[in-house]
Specification:
The complex is a heterodimer of chains A (62) and B (181). With 62 residues, chain A is an all-alpha fold. In chain A, 58% of the residues lie in helices and 0% in strands. Chain B is 75% helix and 0% strand. Chain B contains 11 helices and no strands. The longest helix of chain B has 22 residues. The radius of gyration of chain B is 17 Å and the shape is globular. Classes of the chains: A mainly alpha (62), B mainly alpha (181).
């Protein structure tokens, strides 16, 4: 905080610090897009692949 | 050698976010799933180099990112047009996912340089610390901080957002989030 003046001088317009509100909004949208995929869970092909790769488990289905 | 149960579970637990990261890297769901598959094959083949107790998701993200980068170095044309490809492929995604509300944000995200987009996703969406993101991207912590900062500023610029002002998609995002389970 005490280096605020130096930081302001260092940062040009493009890298000026965004307000918390804007950062929160951008973060919220970013996570919404990301979580859209995350919420799809583990597609069967990957669960099956892991079984295949793990030769300890030879069951076809659980 | 059979994979330890705990390790197998950690791999499974990481797959959803690994897919989300892969899609953000290459902008194409099918290609992203191939990347995840190739990452799993590599991870299992090198499972002995994973140290139990360390961060499995950071390890898998690192493998995926390195694989993606080396693949793209091989395919020069795609390297040169990586961002263009990405922007084009993203435009078709809102319809696929039925979330047309995010179209504007997706397009803004697609306009970022790939290193900035990658840093922003790792820190802002995947939930990695700056240190973990720096490890995954094999660069200095300060570099990650700078990329994330530039990415946020660029997004705000593209989307014309400032403190105290509404920006449309956010209202819709809230509505979608409120309406979803």
């Amino acid at each position: 905080m005490d280096s605020g003046a130096a930081r302001t001088r260092k940062n040009d317009v493009k890298t000026a610090k965004l307000g918390r509100e804007v950062q929160a909004r951008l973060g919220q949208q970013l996570r919404a897009i990301y979580d859209d995929v995350v919420n799809q869970g583990v597609p069967d092909r990957f669960a099956d692949l892991l079984k295949q790769l793990d030769n300890k488990d030879n069951k076809d289905r659980s | 050698m059979p994979i330890d149960d705990a390790v197998r579970q950690q791999i499974l637990d990481t797959i959803p976010s690994l897919r989300a990261f892969a899609i953000s890297l290459c902008g194409n769901v099918d290609r992203a799933d191939d990347l995840v598959q190739e990452t799993m094959v590599r991870a299992i083949a090198n499972i002995d180099s994973f140290q139990p107790g360390t961060n499995m998701s950071a390890w898998l993200f690192t493998i995926l990112r390195n694989h993606f980068r080396s693949e793209y170095r091989k395919r020069r044309r795609e390297v040169e047009d990586a961002d263009g490809h990405y922007a084009d492929s993203l435009k078709s995604q809102p319809e696929q996912h039925g979330h047309i509300e995010f179209g504007e944000f997706r397009e803004a995200l697609a306009q970022l340089p790939s290193d900035q987009r990658e840093a922003l996703i790792l820190v802002g969406a995947s939930g990695f610390s700056y240190e973990e993101a720096a490890h995954i991207c094999d660069c200095a912590v300060g570099t990650i901080k700078s990329r994330v900062n530039r990415a946020r500023n660029r997004l705000a610029e593209i989307l014309h957002v400032r403190d105290g002002e509404d920006f449309g998609p956010d209202e819709q995002t809230r509505a979608v989030l409120a309406g979803s389970k």
